[in-house]
Amino acid sequence: MDPAPASAHVIARWLGYGGLLPFVVPALLVALLPAGEWQTLAARVLVAYGAVILSFLGGIVWGLSLRHPSLTPSLAAREFIYSVCPSLLGWVALLLPLRAGAALLAASVCAAFVHDALVARLHELPRWFLTLRLQLSLGAVSALSLAAVFGPR
Fold this sequence. Notes:
Elements: H1 6-18, H2 21-32, H3 37-66, H4 73-95, H5 98-118, H6 127-150
């Protein structure tokens, strides 16, 4: 596992942390606003962004699997099949009531991190990436959990 150049690591970290803003701001609005139109809009924004990011996490696995030609056919099949599941779960979350959708997304982001941690060696993921994924996953799950608890019914 070659360490990434410092610049790639720094750029990924900045982009990742910046990507938490669309989780944190709507989650705070959901938790702090009274029930009504604005709280519902904030929850919709949060759930939509969560679904997009969950799909992105599946796309990472698809891309890693494509660049790894030495995967056995069964491992490749498992990874490709897994990689489309986040998109499907995100889509289902968009169809559910907001609290349930936020809860499904929170659980799915947790599951995506567990998957990535379990296959980190298989895909030769650098340690810094897994550390960053954990931090970003915790931020996303916290925000989505706020919406699952305090969001509109």
